[in-house]
Write a structure and sequence with these properties.
The protein is an alpha+beta fold. It has three domains: 9-110, Aminopeptidase, CATH 3.40.630; 135-268, Aminopeptidase, CATH 3.40.630.30; 272-350, no CATH class. 31% of the residues lie in helices and 29% in strands. The chain is built from twelve helices and 17 strands. The longest helix is centred in the N-terminal third of the chain and has 15 residues, at 93-107. It starts with 11 loop residues before the first helix and ends in a 13-residue tail after the last helix. The structure holds coenzyme A. Residues 58, 82-84, 89-95, 117, 119, 121-122 line the site of coenzyme A (COA). Coenzyme A binds at residues 58, 82-84, 89-95, 117, 119, 121-122.
Length: 363
């Protein structure tokens, strides 16, 4: 069987044709338009293909992200566009491609890998588990807002620097520059809605849709809670349709205010996560625990098991699933085992760590 490898520059047209044919046969755009950074020539070394007799038969792409959080900057490898040609399925090609992606992500120093899928059992074989949290705020009805004097615009022709200014205020998110945002704004079906004050300063933005996905979902947003909700109320009026804001579960103020305005709330997972470099990842979390004053906090991984707790009160598990869902949620420490009160308090102060990827970063 051919081995996975990065494509040559000269093969990229063939790779893109394969992906468009396999995954975007009814859309009027190329997959490269939908994932401009993942398929940028600078990311060619993170594409994996299997080729046989000159034909591309299996593919996946990896996009490295640096995720800023209050705890640390995490290196996250997002994996996507996993596909095998129908006539070559169930021969182990995708498994090879994914294993290779995980190996290069590990070698490149990623703390974790993440992907979005509905075939959970397929990815569980590699150690991925549903983890992290996502809250969907669903507005089925028009609602009132408290902010007056904003002007609203629906156009993608907005200076990416002003979006970046508001985006950078998020506590958690990938590190981006204006050029990245400019390219994301050109993704098919992306609709940017903005709210401006009387001095023409951007006060809030909301991005709905993204290529084949996320129609009627606001998956990127920024600005204060009240101004964002004023903007969403305006979008809802314009569309006269149900609209959903996807938010990290740590956006407590937004969630609370949206509920007050009548939003329905749906809790979900951030994605499927796999721990890669546990040494680096656990070091970052232990350092954060020390910052919180938990000098004796323990989080370790050896060849036998994972160990978590504090001096004298440790929990050992061989389950990668348990530890992934403890670190990123949604499980609480007490769902793993009945710890004493002190240990529970320590673990719940540290976990779950806030992890979030905004919609444009998925692959
Ligand atoms: C899912 C997909 C990538 C698998 O590719 P593949 O090369 O056939 O996969 P492999 O041969 O390496 O592995 C096959 C295994 O995956 C399992 N599998 C395949 N499709 C699956 C599905 N929809 N749900 C759960 N498991 C699935 C098979 O049962 C088989 O399991 P086994 O090894 O225990 O027998 C392929 O079916 C495909 O391209 N599907 C369409 C695109 C897609 O859905 N991509 C995934 C998006 S995240």
């Amino acid at each position: 069987m051919s081995q996975p490898r990065a494509p040559f520059n000269s093969e990229m047209d063939k790779v893109i044709d394969f992906l468009n044919h396999s995954l975007r046969s009814s859309e009027g755009w190329s997959i490269t338009a939908e994932y401009p950074l993942a398929f940028d020539p600078s990311n060619l070394h993170n594409i994996r293909i299997i080729e046989e007799n000159g034909q591309i038969i299996s593919h996946a792409v990896l996009k490295n992200l640096l995720i800023k959080t209050p705890i640390a900057i995490f290196r996250v490898a997002a994996i996507g566009n996993v596909v095998t040609a129908p006539e070559f399925r169930n021969k182990g090609y995708s498994q090879k491609v994914i294993k290779d992606c995980l190996q290069i992500a590990t070698e490149q120093g990623a703390d974790i890998a993440i992907l979005w899928t509905n075939i959970y059992d397929f990815y569980r074989k590699f150690g991925f588990e549903l983890a992290g949290s996502e809250t969907a705020l669903i507005f089925n009805q028009p609602f009132d807002t408290e902010v007056k004097g904003l002007k609203y615009l629906q156009s993608n022709k907005v200076d990416p620097q002003s979006i970046l200014r508001l985006y950078s205020q998020h506590a958690v998110g990938s590190i981006r520059n204006a050029a990245d945002i400019s390219r994301y704004l050109q993704i098919p079906k992306v609709q940017l809605y903005t709210a401006w004050d009387q001095n023409n300063q951007l006060q809030a933005y909301a991005v709905e849709g993204r290529g084949a996905d996320l129609t009627n979902y606001i998956h990127e947003w920024g600005g204060s809670v009240s101004k964002l909700l004023a903007l969403v109320s305006e979008i809802q009026k314009q569309k006269n349709d149900s609209i959903t804001i996807i938010t990290p579960s740590h956006s407590a103020n937004l969630i609370r205010k949206a509920k007050e305005k009548g939003a329905l709330v749906n809790e979900g997972y951030l994605g499927m996560i796999k721990l890669l470099n546990t040494k680096n990842l656990f070091f970052k979390i232990r350092r954060y625990a020390r910052f919180l004053g938990q000098e004796d906090f323990i989080l370790e991984h050896n060849e036998h098991d994972y160990i978590v707790g504090h001096s004298g009160h440790i929990f050992r598990t061989t389950s990668e699933k348990d530890i992934t869902q403890l670190i990123f949620g949604p499980h609480k420490a007490t769902q793993l085992q009945s710890f004493d009160i002190e240990t529970t308090q320590i673990l719940e102060k540290i976990f779950p760590i806030p992890m979030w990827l905004w919609g444009w970063d998925s692959v």
